[in-house]
Structures are given as structure tokens and as C-alpha cells.
Write a structure and sequence with these properties.
There is one protein chain. This protein is α+β, with helices and mostly antiparallel strands. Helices cover 25% and strands 37% of the residues. It has helices at residues 4-9, 12-22, 58-65, 106-110, 167-171, 184-191, 195-207, and strands at 27-32, 35-40, 46-49, 70-86, 91-96, 122-137, 148-164, 211-217, 220-225. Strands 1, 2, 3, 4, 5, 6 and 7 form a seven-stranded mixed beta sheet that branches. The protein has a two-stranded antiparallel ribbon with strand order 8-9. Helix 6 (184-191) crosses helix 7 (195-207). The relative contact order is 0.12.
């Protein structure tokens, strides 16, 4: 197995978080069966940094939990500055992305692995951070970016962390009492979170059996907390 492939492709953001959470006395790039964990800390906890969807982690995390506890580190980009360079490395310009992240973004990551948080021994930790995204104007990137490629992502400011390891941690996203009915619209209005993100959150929380669909009125599903 070529362990260098993952290291070569990881961003500075990924690498920084890996070493931060593995810590002194820990080890990086630890083999676990047919997989490679980002690391294992001095307490014996497996560390896995995941910046994107959790879908690809399902089999890997199952393997890790057969050997010990697992902490999945997921950065939430609170704000992002974009720096663009020419192919020869010359700095061209910098701008701030209008997009702002929130803890609710975890549900985007969990969309294709909604049962993962219920896996025994798994803790998810959200790192609230500002980042710098470095891009190169080389004509090889997405047409949406005009051919500009993303070269790297760096941690700029650490705002804090949010730990999710029990049902109550996820139920805090739902500001309604047990027995109170709510819809996507009312939850969106109550939290200030846009409807598409709320819909994803309710899909995940329903799969986790933390909320349930009670009935449908007109075109809207009615939800309640299960716990």
C-alpha cells in the first residue's frame, strides 16, 4: 500500500489539523487493516480529518472502531479569503468570499452517512475556522472559476471547537420541545438557517431517529423530536 498518496494530496489545512489533534506522543499515518488513519493520539484515539462528505468514511470508520475510539475532525469554514496567483507564482489579487459557514454545515457532510454519528466509539468535532484558499490561474480549473485551479487551503484563524458525541448534542439544533410540531419553514424561521440546509438537517436527524415525521399538512411535512 502506498501511504504517500494521501499525504501528497492533503491540503495544508488538513495537515495542520492532523498534527494538532494527534499531538505530542502521537503517531501519524497509522495502518488499520486495509486503511490508513490520519493518526492516533497518545490516548490511543484514532484521528481522522475529513474536510468533505462523510460518505467515503463509512467502511473506514467501521474498521477503526473495531480497534478503538475514533475522533473525526471536520473544519467548518466561518469565512474564507481567496488568493489568486499566476502560474509562475506571482501574486495577482485577494478577495473575501461572501459565503459564511455555521455548525449546521455538518449536515451537508453527513448527508450520505447519516447513521455514522450513531456508531459506538465515534466522536465528531467541528473546528470553527477562517481559511485562506490559494488558487492558480492556469486554465485547468473548473469552468465556474474561469479555469482557475484550487492549489491549497490554509488555516488562518481558529475560532473554537464543537464536540458532537451524544444525542443531546444533535438535538440542540432543534429549538423545540418534545411534542411541539414544526416544519422546515418554522425551523428555518426560528434558527435563521436557509431552508435547503434545514431540509438536509432534518433528513439526517430523521435517519438518526432523533426526529420523526408525524404527518403531512397540505404540502408540508410535520416533524417532532423523538427524545
Amino acid at each position: 500500500m502506498n501511504n504517500s498518496i494521501g499525504i501528497k494530496n492533503e491540503s495544508s489545512l488538513h495537515r495542520t489539523l492532523k498534527f494538532q489533534y494527534v499531538g505530542p506522543g502521537g503517531k501519524t499515518e497509522e495502518a488499520v487493516g486495509e486503511y490508513i488513519a490520519d493518526g492516533i493520539n497518545s490516548c490511543g484515539e484514532y484521528i481522522e480529518v475529513q474536510t468533505g462528505s462523510f460518505g467515503p468514511l463509512k467502511k473506514k470508520i467501521k474498521e477503526f472502531t473495531s480497534c478503538g475510539k475514533v475522533r473525526i475532525i471536520h473544519p467548518i469554514v466561518v469565512s474564507k479569503k481567496i488568493e489568486v496567483y499566476a502560474q509562475d507564482g506571482t501574486f495577482l489579487y485577494r478577495r473575501k468570499s461572501p459565503k459564511k459557514g455555521s455548525p449546521w454545515d455538518i449536515f451537508n457532510a453527513l448527508l450520505y452517512a447519516p447513521e455514522l454519528p450513531l456508531t459506538k466509539g465515534v466522536t465528531i468535532e467541528l473546528v470553527m475556522a477562517d481559511i485562506i484558499e490559494k488558487r492558480v490561474k492556469n486554465g485547468k480549473g473548473s469552468w465556474r472559476r474561469g479555469g482557475i485551479s484550487i492549489q491549497d487551503k490554509e488555516l488562518s484563524v481558529w475560532h473554537g471547537r464543537i464536540t458532537l458525541n451524544k444525542k443531546a448534542d444533535y438535538l440542540r439544533f432543534i429549538p423545540f420541545k418534545k411534542g411541539e410540531e414544526f416544519t422546515v419553514s418554522s425551523l428555518s424561521q426560528q434558527t435563521g438557517i436557509k431552508k435547503p440546509t434545514v431540509q438536509k438537517a432534518l433528513y439526517v436527524l430523521t435517519k438518526m431517529k432523533l426526529v420523526k415525521r408525524v404527518c403531512k399538512k397540505k404540502n408540508a411535512w410535520i416533524y417532532e423530536k423523538n427524545s
